[in-house]
Amino acid sequence: MSKFFKALLRFLPVMALTYLGLLAVTFFIGRVVPVDPVLAVLGDRATEDQMAQMREAMGLNKPLWAQFASYVSKVAQGDFGTSVLTARPVLDDIIRVFPATLELATMGIIIGVGVGVPLGVWAAVRRGKFADQLVRVMGLIGYSVPIFWLGLMGLVLFYAKLDWVSGPGRIGIAFAYSVPTVTGLVLVDSALAGEWQAFRSAISHLALPAGLLGYFSLAYISRMTRSFMLKELSQEYIVAARAKGLSEATIIWRHALRNAAVPLVTVIALSYAGLLEGSVLTETVFAWPGLGLYITNSLQNADMNAVLGGTLVVGSIFIALNLFSDLMYRLLDPRTR
User: Fold this and answer.
1) How far apart are the C-alpha atoms of 27 and 207, rounded to whole Å?
2) Domain of residue 263, residue span
3) pLDDT, tens only, 95-146
4) What gap in Å lies between CA 99 and CA 282, rounded to an integer?
5) Its pTM surpasses 0.85
6) Contact at 8 Å (CB) between 329 and 261?
7) Transmembrane stretches, by residue range (predicted)?
């Protein structure tokens, strides 16, 4: 365990520099976009004096380096500014909407890993055969077809035509205010409250967007699993295991997949991060009240504080999951220590 903490301490300076770079990028993006934050707050009917006073109050009359220092100081204190759209602190808005994205992305990655890994193993074992070609075609479709188009077609088929799932939104209107908010995760909160009708409604709303994101992630996970498994199945220890008379199932699942799981951890972690930040189009199509929809609405309304705050959260997720995958890589593979 001491080695784990030593590895963590070695990563902290890199993590701090990465986060500082993220702050610099978001800050300068906020300064070069053709949106006047003063105009967004006061409107186009404000007088020159009012605009000058607001510019001074927002610190926009200071040198750029002083503005950046102030920006870093405020972010370090959890102050992302106030949203023009909601008139509330951006951090409070993000805390309110993020559980919806977390719930959607978590279900998506569970589907992606639960289906993608076995498909990748199956394709590697059946290399060059029909099963391999089928899995590769499924992955190619998941890569090639725009996710918003799949979402719209899914709504037309499974909601409008077949009525198998519920439509846009996170839960039925009848249950919108009947479930007390504890964690912000509707499935968890409805289960804790014993509201099983609301739980079924939430599942029905979640099934299609989560399945769509799951398919999007399994396309990548199955492809990488296949690649890692092919590499492991060609190693000499596999030949030795077969020579000892071990069953094919034991060789594949206990030996080959166990070694392939080491680099697969990084793939899964980055896929999860991609779902947490890349569900913007999915949330827009399904009117899912998460971080992606919040950033989209803020961008359409020139609410740059909210846009940059959401961008920082997304960047922080990537940094944290990268750190987690690197640490897990060291724990699972002694050769990297």
Assistant:
1) 37
2) 106-288+314-336
3) 999 999 999 999 999 999 999 999 999 999 988 898 889 988 988 888 788 8
4) 15
5) no
6) no
7) 7-29, 104-125, 137-160, 202-221, 261-286, 306-329
